[in-house]
Amino acid sequence: MQDIVAELAELNTTLVAVTPQIAEKSMEMIEKHSLTFAMLSDPGLDYLAQWGVRFQVPDDIKKFYGGFGIDLAATNGDDSWCLPIPARLVVSRDGIVRTADIDPNYTARPEPQKTLDDVRSLG
Questions:
Q1: φ, ψ for residue 29, nearest 5 deg
Q2: How far apart are CA 10 and CA 99, in angstroms?
Q3: How far apart, in whole angstroms, are the C-alpha atoms of residue 21 and residue 78?
């Protein structure tokens, strides 16, 4: 998505990501990937739960993650072991969700061009 930030700005559109990560982890990601869009913190994913795009990591997956040294409790600053369901929303200026791409398969994400096309369709 970083690749389309400038084009979105030309369309008077702002890209925002929502993450459960603590600020330090978000900053690491921003620096590592040279991100220029905002990353908002949603500890415990309480806000995203209201949208229905949060899930509880099952115990067997926690063990699997642990084998790779992944500690969501440390990364997210709480012990909820919740993750967001990958979602991309295009929200108009009046606060209405105009398009949504939501898929629990984290590898199935819309191409950035689709985001641009969706924004352009708002006219």
A1: -65, -40
A2: 20
A3: 9
Residue 32 is part of which domain span? 2-115
Statement: residue 123 has pLDDT above 90: no
Confidence band of 117 (pLDDT split at 50, 70, 90): very high
In a domain, 122, yes or no: no
Over the stretch 38-81, which tens digit does the pLDDT of each residue have? 999 998 899 999 999 999 999 999 999 999 999 999 999 999 99
Alpha carbon distance 101, 90 (integer Å): 9
Q: Is residue 88 part of a domain?
A: yes
- The CATH number given to whatever domain includes residue 105 is 3.40.30.10
pLDDT at 44: 87
Taken in order 16, 22, 24, 26, the sign of the CA dihedral is: negative
120 occurs within a structural domain = no
Q: How many domains would you assign to the chain? A: 1
